[in-house]
Design goal:
This protein has about 300 residues and is of the alpha/beta class. It folds into three domains: about 1-90, Diphthamide synthesis DPH1/DPH2 domain 1 (Rossmann fold); about 100-210, Diphthamide synthesis DPH1/DPH2 domain 2 (Rossmann fold); about 220-305, Rossmann fold (3-Layer(aba) Sandwich). It has helices at about 1-15, 30-40, 60-65, 100-105, 125-135, 160-165, 180-190, 210-225, 240, 245-255, 290-295; strands at about 20, 45, 70-75, 85-90, 115-120, 140, 170-175, 195-200, 205, 230-235, 260-265, 280-285, 300. The strands form three sheets. The chain has a five-stranded mixed beta sheet, with helices on both faces. A four-stranded parallel beta sheet has the order 2-1-3-4, covered by helices on one side. Strand 5 (about 115-120), helix 5 (about 125-135) and strand 6 form a beta-alpha-beta unit. The longest helix has 18 residues, at about 210-225. The protein is flat, with a radius of gyration of 21 Å. The N and C termini lie far apart (about 50 Å).
Length: about 300
């Protein structure tokens, strides 16, 4: 109901003639229904089928090509990406009983006095409920804030500032949600124990042991980078993934090390895009998910993890 209210408000505010609908993979099952609802209002709708990686990924060029005067971006909160076409962000909140998960797994948290709580925008409303539950059970609860994200406690796989800002006073962190990508972002950027309160499985899982594996992987990738002669630098045209980065400077830096380097650009970066090209290693300047998902046959190292 809240989603429909937000959607109707966005349509009334912008009064569009044609919209481009965009959503992450998990919400695409609802896109046809949403499109039909919009068309019932005499507004033309196009469903954007490309994978969506977040609010960093706004397809304004496509919207302009199709003559859309509004992009409806579902499932994420704005993060400051400038668009040549107006964007209405419909966050699509999801309710969940995290209190039940925390209650059933309270023994796992018994030794921690202060706990940092983080989540994605889908469950941002549940932070207060989790906070009350933990405080009722004698815990001090810390909810930090990223400078570039909209809500306190909000994290992304590429932005764990909400956790980093409270790490000094936190004994552990709990990520409210499902999946591992965002929680792994917290694990990589902090040194405290990290738990996932998984709404799908109902389990509270500690992933702290993976920190050593991540560090070992980083060492191995840096060794491979050091030995590499041909380097491909992955760059995405998604505006929010290039913000503040200069791929040409990275290329010069790599070439000064005596290596051959090529900039490889695409909107959606995938292995088939570089078929026929030969590289010893790929340096990723796009979404860190590319490195985590292990889809390329070449080793992939994130640009910010290369050791000097």
């Amino acid at each position: 109901m809240e989603f429909e209210t937000e959607l109707n408000a966005a349509l009334e505010k912008h009064n569009p003639k044609r919209v481009l609908l965009q959503a992450p993979e998990g919400l695409k099952t609802k896109m046809q229904e949403i499109a039909k609802g919009i068309e019932a209002r005499k507004i033309e709708a196009i469903i954007w089928a490309e994978p969506c990686f977040g609010a960093c990924d706004i397809p304004d060029s496509a919207a302009k090509t199709f003559g859309c005067d509004l992009i409806i971006h579902i499932g994420h909160a704005p993060m400051g990406v400038k668009s040549e076409v107006p964007v209405a962000y419909i966050e699509y909140r999801m309710s969940a009983d995290f209190g039940k998960i925390l209650l059933e797994n309270s023994a796992a948290l018994s030794k921690y006095k202060s706990i940092g709580v983080v989540t994605t925008v889908q469950h941002i409303d549940e932070i207060e409920n989790a906070k009350k539950f933990l405080e009722k059970n004698g815990k001090k609860v810390l909810v930090g804030k990223s400078k570039s994200l909209k809500y306190p406690g909000q994290v992304l796989g590429c932005n764990a500032e909400a956790a980093e800002s409270t790490e000094k006073n936190a004994d552990a962190f709990i990520f409210l949600g499902s999946g591992r990508f965002h929680a792994l972002g917290v694990l990589k950027k902090t040194e405290k124990p990290v738990f996932i309160a998984d709404i799908e499985s109902g389990a509270l899982t500690e992933i702290s042991s993976e920190r050593n594996l991540i560090e070992k992987k980083k060492i191995i990738l840096n060794a491979k980078f050091k030995d590499a002669k041909k380097v491909g630098i992955l760059v995405s045209s998604k505006k929010g993934q290039l913000a503040g980065k200069n791929p040409f400077e990275i290329k010069k830096k790599i070439e000064r090390l005596g290596k051959s380097a090529d900039l490889i650009a695409a909107d959606y970066l995938s292995p088939e895009k570089i078929l026929g090209m030969t590289f010893d290693i790929l340096v990723n300047m796009a979404c860190p998910r590319i490195e985590d998902d292990l889809v390329f046959k070449e080793p992939v190292i994130n640009a910010d993890e290369i050791e000097e």
